[in-house]
Amino acid sequence: MLRLTSGSVMSRLGGGFGARGLLGSADRFLSKELKSVRTADVALSSFAFGVIQGKFKAQGGLTLLGLPVDLLAGATFHVMGLFDFTRSYSHHLHAFGDGALASFFATTGYRVGERWGQGGSLMHGLSGMFGDAKEPAGGSTIADKELASLVRAE
Predict the structure, then answer these.
(1) What is the chain's mean pLDDT, rounded?
(2) What is the dihedral of CA 10, 13, 19, 24, to 10 degrees?
């Protein structure tokens, strides 16, 4: 009888060739590959939302329900990844959500830095964080006038 356990064929072939070693190697390889897939998901998502917001730059970016679409999509992808029926895809959903949020915050950060560079102080940059209708999308899609009217409405 051929045995594949200790003291058998596999152990005679060499200590590093055992089933545990083979499974360990496969696990390390797949872990590395999954990290590459996650990086690709994040990059693809952030690029796609950057393209979308760039296309609608003249309108102040694409919004849905008054919120920047990249911010809204990022939150939605993360919430969807929490449900049981999406368990097998949750790592992709979270990665896409991270990419959408990266697009939003990179655009917002760019806008704050741009205003900071024009005005000389960080607070000046932060004060214009929501931009106006002719500025880049992302965090700058809510016009200052809209923000002021929201504050007065309460």
Answers:
(1) 75
(2) 170
